[in-house]
Amino acid sequence: MQNSLHVTNVQIFPVDKDTTLKAIVQVTLNDALKITALKLFEGPDGLYLRYPINPKSKKNLCFSFPLDPELREYIQQEVVEAYNADSI
């Protein structure tokens, strides 16, 4: 990845495994920015990450999200790896 942002910490908070929501997640980038309230879901194509949304918004606008698709994929990959490591 050519981006200068790196995932430096992932915290996984598992939830009931009988639902599609598998965990609440916190991600730290470059030991400088923490993104909280991420949700890890199980879908038909595997695990995927959803970013926090404004519950008061009628359009479900995200509070924060990667603008770069490569960064989005990188963060999701790091979270899924951390979740799978915790599940073993």
Present the secondary structure layout.
Elements: E1 7-14, E2 21-29, E3 33-43, E4 46-50, H1 69-87
Antiparallel strand pairs: 1-2, 2-3, 3-4
What does this structure look like?
The protein is an alpha+beta fold and 88 residues long. Helix content is 22%, strand content 38%. It is built from one helix and four strands. It has one helix at residues 69-87, and strands spanning 7-14, 21-29, 33-43, 46-50. It has a four-stranded antiparallel β-sheet with strand order 1-2-3-4, with helices on one face. Strand 1 (7-14) and strand 2 form a beta hairpin. The longest helix is centred in the C-terminal third of the chain and has 19 residues, at 69-87.
Keywords:
88 residues, alpha+beta, Arylsulfatase, C-terminal domain, four-stranded antiparallel β-sheet, 1 helix
**CATH topology, anyone?**
Arylsulfatase, C-terminal domain
The tally of strands reads 4
Total domain modules: 1
Please give the CATH class. Alpha Beta
Question: Spans with pLDDT under 50 lasting ≥5 residues?
Answer: none
Residue-averaged pLDDT: 88
Evaluate the radius of gyration: 13 Å
Name of the CATH homologous superfamily: Stage V sporulation protein G
Largest sheet: 4 strands, antiparallel
Q: What's the order of the H and E elements?
A: EEEEH
Distance between the termini: 27 Å
The structure class reads alpha+beta
Helical amount: 10-25%
Shape, principal axes of CA atoms: globular
Beta-strand percentage?
Answer: 35-45%
Provide the CATH architecture.
Answer: 2-Layer Sandwich
- Count every helix, treating DSSP H or I runs of 4 or more residues as helices: 1
Main-sheet strand order equals 1-2-3-4
